[in-house]
Design brief:
With about 140 residues, this protein is α+β, with helices and mostly antiparallel strands. Helix content is about 30%, strand content about 20%. The chain has one domain (about 5-10, about 30-135): Conserved hypothetical protein from pyrococcus furiosus pfu- 392566-001, ParB domain, CATH 3.90.1530.
């Protein structure tokens, strides 16, 4: 069960060196920096607007009590954020076939950020998706 004080925590993001890739304790390599990029202050409402419809059941009126969400993962995120410990930004990608945003990794982080009424979140993307994300979110060039 999600703790009742979850709405008192503030998201803390692992920037600029997310640990999504094994081994999780290493710094990003030159190859990682060529392949991936962290985008800051991305509109969460806009992400949800363009998110693939397959995620509609997750971002529903049930909020964090949604049975599709792993409550232990949500509690783990709350525990870390409550202690001021950072967590990697969600890893998103552009689905060229459906013309929508997909979540590679980070459904629970986005769900909790949404429940906390965050307006902006950082995201991790593949560098080859940058131009599409730049257009959608009206970002400047790198």
């Amino acid at each position: 069960m999600v703790s009742e004080h979850y709405n008192q925590v503030e998201p803390v993001w692992e920037i600029p060196n997310p640990k999504l890739f094994p081994p999780f304790d290493r710094q990003w390599s030159k190859e990682d920096k060529r392949r991936f990029i962290v985008l800051f202050d991305i509109s969460l409402p806009k992400i949800l607007e363009i998110l693939d419809s397959s995620y509609d059941k997750i971002f529903s009126s049930e909020g964090l009590m949604n049975p599709l969400l792993n409550q232990k993962k949500i509690e783990g995120i709350i525990f870390r954020w409550d202690k001021g410990l950072p967590i990697d930004p969600p890893f998103l990608f552009w689905n060229h076939q459906t013309q929508t945003i997909m979540i590679e990794n980070g459904i629970h982080r986005l769900s909790l950020a949404f429940a906390l009424e965050a307006t902006n979140v950082p995201i991790l993307i593949n560098r080859y998706d940058f131009n599409k994300f730049r257009t959608i979110f009206k970002l400047k060039s790198l």
